[in-house]
Amino acid sequence: MPKQISPYYSKTGEVYHIYGVCASGSAIKRGRKVSGKSNKKLCKACIDIRAGKRPR
Question: I need a labelling partner for 8 at 20 to 30 A (CA). Which of 15, 44, 50, 53 fits?
């Protein structure tokens, strides 16, 4: 199982991420990544990674 990291999100996104291997989280460009959750919901890919349904 991938290691969980501190939550982060994109300034323009609607979800937050908790895995560094999340493809959509990894696509966030430098300067747009913000630490925290900011009352956003968890990314679907991160939910699947946590449940063991996806390797990344």
Answer: 53
